[in-house]
């Protein structure tokens, strides 16, 4: 994994094992979040965009496979590395078919864990570059037609998604109401319509409300611009 996207979620109920993994991964240059239960994994996994999620199959409340399936159903695309003492062929096949991207059997070598994380990270970055547009902490997934900020999904209607996608593709540029009407609605400019302002208002509330900083800015008398600070 390169650049700033080196955050990993480690889902492990054994506190000693989790602590060792967190310490070794941090020393290797990763940022690490920990989850000790399935419920905590579901909460953390849906809040942030992780480069990789490592997950133990045997958790105290919800088993790891159920957690993976739920996060996949919720639109989480981060690769999963299953780490489990269940190492039979049937166990590995079930884990991979349930949504896992790789499977590592306990006990394992930390060097092998690092190698598998790097491989999954490279694959994740390649997919993300092709299908996900990013501005600041906003991610727009062109495949699932969904958006999120800091890993939290933003509920958008189809036209709202089209509007946001157009603004993101024109990051840093001022786009006029006429441009939005033409490219998002395929209509010629009608000076009497307020449809643009209505939809931008809806999208702005969904994207910017309760966030650390706004992304959608009004350029008085001209139109709108989507940009992150700095």
UniProtKB/TrEMBL annotation:
Pfam annotation, one family: Trans_reg_C
Name by which UniProt lists this protein: DNA-binding response regulator
Alphabetical keyword list: DNA-binding, Phosphoprotein
DNA-binding region, residues: 130-228
Species for this entry: Bradyrhizobium iriomotense
CDD domains xref list: trans_reg_C
Domain Response regulatory, residue spans: 7-121
Transmembrane segments: none
Matches recorded under Gene3D superfamilies: 3.40.50.2300, 6.10.250.690, Winged helix-like DNA-binding domain superfamily/Winged helix DNA-binding domain (1.10.10.10)
PANTHER family: REGULATOR OF RPOS, TWO-COMPONENT RESPONSE REGULATOR
Modified residues (4-aspartylphosphate): 56
């Amino acid at each position: 994994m390169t650049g700033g996207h080196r955050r990993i979620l480690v889902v492990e109920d054994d506190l000693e094992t989790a602590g060792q993994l967190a310490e070794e991964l941090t020393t290797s240059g990763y940022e690490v979040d920990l989850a000790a239960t399935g419920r905590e994994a579901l909460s953390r996994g849906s809040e942030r965009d992780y480069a990789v999620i490592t997950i133990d199959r045997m958790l105290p409340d919800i088993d790891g496979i159920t957690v993976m399936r739920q996060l996949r159903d919720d639109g989480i695309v981060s690769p999963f590395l299953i780490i489990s003492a269940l190492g039979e062929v049937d166990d590995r096949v079930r884990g991979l078919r349930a949504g896992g991207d790789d499977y590592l059997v306990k006990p394992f070598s930390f060097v092998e864990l690092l190698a598998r994380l790097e491989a999954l990270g490279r694959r994740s970055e390649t997919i993300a570059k092709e299908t996900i547009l990013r501005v600041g902490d906003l991610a727009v997934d062109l495949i699932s037609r969904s958006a999120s900020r800091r890993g939290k999904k933003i509920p958008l209607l189809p036209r709202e998604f089209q509007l946001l996608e157009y603004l993101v593709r024109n990051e840093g540029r001022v786009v006029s109401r006429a441009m939005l009407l033409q490219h998002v609605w395929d209509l010629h400019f009608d000076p009497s319509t307020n449809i643009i302002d209505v939809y931008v208002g809806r999208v702005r509330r969904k994207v910017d409300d309760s966030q650390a900083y706004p992304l959608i800015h009004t350029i008085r008398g001209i139109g709108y611009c989507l940009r992150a600070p700095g």
